[in-house]
Every structure is written in structure tokens, then in C-alpha cells.
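DATA SHEET
Item: assembly model
Revision: 1
Owner: S.N.
Input lines:
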Amino acid sequence: MKVHKIIEGCLNKDKKSWDIFVEKYSKLIYWAIRKRLSASSFKSSQDDIDYIFQEVFLLILQGDKLGQLKDIKTIASWLVVVASNKTVDFIRRKIKENEKLVVDIPVLKDDKFEEELHKRDLLNVLGNIIDTLPNKEKIVISFNIIEGRTHKEIAEITAMPVNTVSTIIARTKEKVKKGLEKIGLKDL
Amino acid sequence: MRKIEEYFKNYLKKEVSNSKNTPQCLSEESIIDYLENKLDNQKRKDIEKHLSQCNFCLSQLNLVFEAKKSNIRNIGDNVPVRLINKAKLLINNGKNTIGKGGVSRMKKNLFLTGSIIFFIISFLLPKYFIQCLVVTLVLSVRWAFESENGRTLIMVFDSWRRHSHDEDNQVSNCLKDRFKSPRL
């Protein structure tokens, strides 16, 4: 059965099409949920994964969610985003329920006070440097540092030449180094 | 420099954890279109402006890229069978009964239409009047039993038949008393 037939069947609430759809995209949705959960600092259980998994399929089945898909060729990518959004909603809801913050602000203890202060200085410098970067450079450096993407991959995502990406990364790192030297941090 | 990168990474990761999706965040389509390089320059710039300020959308973009890169069709671990079966059942549970319901609704209307047609035919073909009338009766009974109204009527009749009339008499006596009382 072709993808557009499956989608059409699912929109018409056809049981056979739905079964094929679930079989076909379960793995991808499951992967996206787990990936999103592992990227956050939220401690999740298998029950949480099971719950989100069902929620994603329910969201797709109910209402007009599947009807919002413009290009059937991109359904897999679309499902990844839908599953990821649903996971983030779940995390947020759970955090609200538990009244707990994702990132705990550390309590400063006497012996660690200087170390923390030093770290915070460093983070302020990094923050200031990132804020001064142009939009595209900020995206490039974020992909490189946070997600660990290679220069080639970033070039693919941002549709920029690899050389440009490499130059941006080298230049930004140099800026960071100089910024840190200004506040007397040379030995890092 | 490695330590700087580590701090840099921690800083940006912290930003991601604190980031929230806002109404201005990119839609599913925008993220995909950006990655597929389907956008014009202006739209692309707008998205990049948002991506530079929103770590949430940046991480969404990264996730889709990773899925595409790892061959989207064969991605991921095996999903527990019980989860797949449960998801399949979503179309049949109380929330979504359109699948089978649509067919049974058609069937019910078929009985009704059939009974009307045979009723008309019984007058058109006097030779088969009795036969057609019997078919009409059978189809009507089927329709009455299949339709919800018919079932409700049967239930009401059944409960009325089984119900003891003591309570009814009690209620009617109470009402009679009230009407007779001087207060009213």
C-alpha cells in the first residue's frame, strides 16, 4: 500500500490503513520520543515512554492533525517533530505537576563559592560573546558545540558551503578565547 | 581550549533545558521546509533569526536532521509489540468508533431501504403481495432491532414489564393527596 493511500485511509478512519500506519511508523515515533527524553534532563520511566507513544498516535488519529501534513513525502520528518513536541509537552506537564525545575540552580557552599563564582564569570562571558554573534553564526556554533555536528553536517543543515562553516566556527572560538583572556582566564 | 568548549557546551545546553516553545516557534512544516531547503531567502532569514534565539527549535531541527541522516526508514530499536497493538486499537475504542460504525450504519439503512422497496413492490406486483409483505416485515424487524431507537424502546418496554407497579401506585397516590390538600 502506498503512503498516500495509507494517509487517506487514516483520515477516513479506516482500520486497515491505520494498522499499516502504526506498523510502519512505530519505530520512528518511538525513537523520536526516546531521543527527546534523553536530550532533556527529565528522568523518565518506561511507563512515561509508553504513555507518550499512545498520546502521539491518539493526536495523529484524532481531529485534523494528519490533515495538516502538506507534503506526504516528508511524513517521516513531520512525525519526528510531532512526537518530539508531544514529548516536550509531557515533560512540561510532569514538571509542573512535580513543581520542580529542570535545571536546578546550585546552592553555593562556602568551600565551593569561589569555584562557582569563577564558573559564573565564565558563563557570563560566553553568554555575552554568543549574543554578539550574527544569527547564522549563532546557529552554526550551537550545532557544533551543543549537538556535536560536524562541519559538513552543519553545511548540509544550513545550506552553506563547508568552508564558510569552518571559518565561522574557528572565528567564534577565537572570539571566545580572546573574551576569556580579557577577564584573565588563559589556562583553560 | 577543550575545557572552554566544555564550558561553552554546558552553557548552551543549559539554555536548551530552559528554552520553551512559544507561539512564535516554528511549525512542523517550517522546520522540514528549512531542512529541505525549500524556502525563499526572506523566509529562510526569518527562520534563522528565530533559530538563533530559540534553542528549542534548534534542537527540533537537529532531531529531524538526525532522523534523516540515520536513514529514517530503519531508525530506532524494536518497539514492544504490546505498544503497537495498543496503538492499533485506538481506532476501535470509545473515542474513535468511526471505522466499524460507518459500516454498521450503512447496514441499518440498507434494511430500512429494503423494507420500503419491498413494501412498494408488494402493491406493484399483486401476485407476490404476501411474499413481498413478509420480506418487508422481516427487514423492518431487523431494522428496528439494529437501530438504537428500537433497542431503547425494547429496553423501556422490558423494564416496564418487569417493574413492580407498587412504586407507581405510591407516586400517583402521593400526587393525588397533594392535589387534594388545602395548601394547593
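QC remark: The longest helix of chain B spans residues 98-124.
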